């Protein structure tokens, strides 16, 4: 499906910003927001940051807020297929023609990076569309991330892993310090509490911010199931209500993300920024949550694909554990690719015992991993010339896992949905 002319122009205006060297600092976006009249001010907001699980946590929270009748702005990254996916209002991506208007207005600020441009556009679009609350996913790190140009009323830290060490530092402690520096609102909540990092987080978070753990706000417990499944059933207790349901997002790690989203909602309720949710709204909002490309099953021309954007060691560990627990070991084939800065050998070591036939394929990115390196990581694999070729070659009688990169998942979704 071809892009309409306005969307093509949007892509063109943004393309050159990919090439700009990213320089840490909030001065550029702060200046631009001031020129725009500070659209971020007066906008209640939640910042979600961490190595993994940010998008799912943000999606849970935004969906429940919408079920409460609120007009919600959701800003996430990266996009999978279309850039306008990053900015959503009421669950719907900003129309490309509206995003184009903001990108054109921002074109005079040549110093802005791609991400800074879209973050400024998100703040402006949310203000212009009079959203009741914004849920903002950080891009990389926290301290110098453009989303941190505002002190958000609530900040949620999912976890700390080892992705982007070239930017954030060589150890988890360095990375934790960078992320904790963005914990500077009224309430900051940590999802997966790690005692080895707690002192680092306390030291670098704003001392005026109340720091807590998600489990101090709500109770969310996974329940045993009769049959192995990718989906978790949970019992939750919060806001004086108790409910039980199967989470709509697959993977046992979604229990952590759901707990943190509910804790964030609890903080908003405590600060009287939103009304207290009803049991019906909690259940309806949870069940309505969607987050594409994360353990998402798609059927296409008699084939079954399981798409997951795991692209670092922690995410790949969580993915392979989820697949094994669901009884899928040995029942999967694999389509794999990754970017050049990812731990290829370690990810391949986790995947090889679980899968049968393997195809590796190049990515259309200057940061793509060399195809020969990919092939060496999976001895005996088939080399496909493109993502489309790999998907078309998948066996009809097998479930094929597509993983290693969000860019790979985006290419697969584009092809499978007929948007290539």
TrEMBL record:
Pathway connected to this protein: Cofactor biosynthesis; tetrahydrofolylpolyglutamate biosynthesis; Cofactor biosynthesis; tetrahydrofolate biosynthesis; 7,8-dihydrofolate from 2-amino-4-hydroxy-6-hydroxymethyl-7,8-dihydropteridine diphosphate and 4-aminobenzoate: step 2/2
The UniProt record lists the keyword Coiled coil: no
Biological processes, Gene Ontology terms: folic acid biosynthetic process
GO cellular component term of the entry, any: cytoplasm
EC number: 6.3.2.12, 6.3.2.17
Gene3D superfamilies linked to this entry: Mur ligase, C-terminal domain (3.90.190.20), Mur-like, catalytic domain (3.40.1190.10)
Keywords of this entry: ATP-binding, Folate biosynthesis, Ligase, Magnesium, Metal-binding, Nucleotide-binding
Domain Mur ligase C-terminal: residue ranges: 293-405
One annotated GO molecular function: dihydrofolate synthase activity
Catalytic reaction(s) noted: 7,8-dihydropteroate + L-glutamate + ATP = 7,8-dihydrofolate + ADP + phosphate + H(+); (6S)-5,6,7,8-tetrahydrofolyl-(gamma-L-Glu)(n) + L-glutamate + ATP = (6S)-5,6,7,8-tetrahydrofolyl-(gamma-L-Glu)(n+1) + ADP + phosphate + H(+); (6R)-5,10-methylenetetrahydrofolyl-(gamma-L-Glu)(n) + L-glutamate + ATP = (6R)-5,10-methylenetetrahydrofolyl-(gamma-L-Glu)(n+1) + ADP + phosphate + H(+); 10-formyltetrahydrofolyl-(gamma-L-Glu)(n) + L-glutamate + ATP = 10-formyltetrahydrofolyl-(gamma-L-Glu)(n+1) + ADP + phosphate + H(+)
NCBIfam families: folC
Family that this chain belongs to: Belongs to the folylpolyglutamate synthase family.
Function: Functions in two distinct reactions of the de novo folate biosynthetic pathway. Catalyzes the addition of a glutamate residue to dihydropteroate (7,8-dihydropteroate or H2Pte) to form dihydrofolate (7,8-dihydrofolate monoglutamate or H2Pte-Glu). Also catalyzes successive additions of L-glutamate to tetrahydrofolate or 10-formyltetrahydrofolate or 5,10-methylenetetrahydrofolate, leading to folylpolyglutamate derivatives.
Name used for this protein in its record: Dihydrofolate synthase/folylpolyglutamate synthase
Organism this protein belongs to: Thermoanaerobaculum aquaticum
């Amino acid at each position: 499906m071809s892009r309409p002319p306005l969307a093509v122009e949007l892509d063109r205006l943004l393309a050159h910003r990919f090439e700009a060297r990213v320089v840490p600092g909030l001065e550029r976006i702060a200046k631009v927001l001031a020129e725009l009249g500070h659209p971020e001010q007066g906008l209640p907001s939640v910042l979600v940051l961490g190595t993994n699980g940010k998008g799912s946590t943000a999606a849970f929270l935004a969906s429940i807020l919408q079920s409460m009748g609120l007009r919600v702005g959701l800003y996430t990254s990266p996009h999978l297929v279309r850039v306008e996916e990053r900015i959503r209002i009421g669950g719907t991506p900003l129309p490309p023609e509206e995003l184009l208007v903001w990108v054109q207005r921002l074109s005079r600020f040549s110093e802005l990076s791609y991400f800074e441009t879209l973050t400024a556009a998100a703040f402006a679009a949310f203000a212009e569309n009079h959203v009741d609350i914004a849920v903002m996913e950080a891009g990389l790190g926290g301290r110098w991330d453009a989303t941190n140009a505002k002190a958000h009323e609530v900040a949620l830290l999912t976890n700390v892993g080892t992705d982007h060490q070239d930017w954030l530092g060589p150890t988890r402690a360095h990375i934790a310090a960078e992320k904790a520096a963005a914990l500077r609102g009224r309430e900051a909540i940590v999802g997966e509490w790690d005692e080895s990092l707690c002192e680092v987080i306390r030291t670098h978070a704003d001392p005026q911010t109340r720091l807590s753990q998600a489990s101090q706000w709500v109770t969310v417990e996974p329940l045993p199931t009769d049959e192995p499944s990718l989906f978790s059933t949970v019992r939750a207790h919060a806001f004086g209500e108790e409910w039980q349901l199967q989470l709509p997002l697959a993977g046992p790690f979604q229990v952590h993300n759901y707990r943190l989203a509910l804790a964030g909602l609890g903080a908003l309720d405590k600060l009287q920024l939103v009304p207290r949710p009803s049991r019906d709204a909690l259940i309806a909002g949870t069940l309505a949550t969607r987050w594409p490309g994360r353990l998402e099953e798609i059927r296409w021309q008699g084939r079954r694909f399981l798409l997951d954007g795991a692209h670092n060691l922690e995410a790949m560990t969580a993915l392979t554990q989820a697949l094994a627990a669901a009884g899928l070991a040995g029942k999967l084939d694999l389509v794999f690719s990754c970017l050049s800065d990812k731990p290829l050998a370690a990810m391949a070591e986790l995947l090889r015992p679980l899968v049968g036939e393997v195809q590796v394929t190049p990515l259309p990115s200057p940061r793509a991993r060399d195809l020969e390196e990919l092939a060496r990581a999976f001895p005996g694999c088939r080399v496909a010339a493109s993502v489309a070729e790999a998907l078309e070659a998948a066996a009809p009688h097998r479930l094929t896992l597509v993983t290693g990169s969000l860019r790979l998942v985006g290419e697969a979704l584009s092809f499978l949905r007929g948007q290539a």
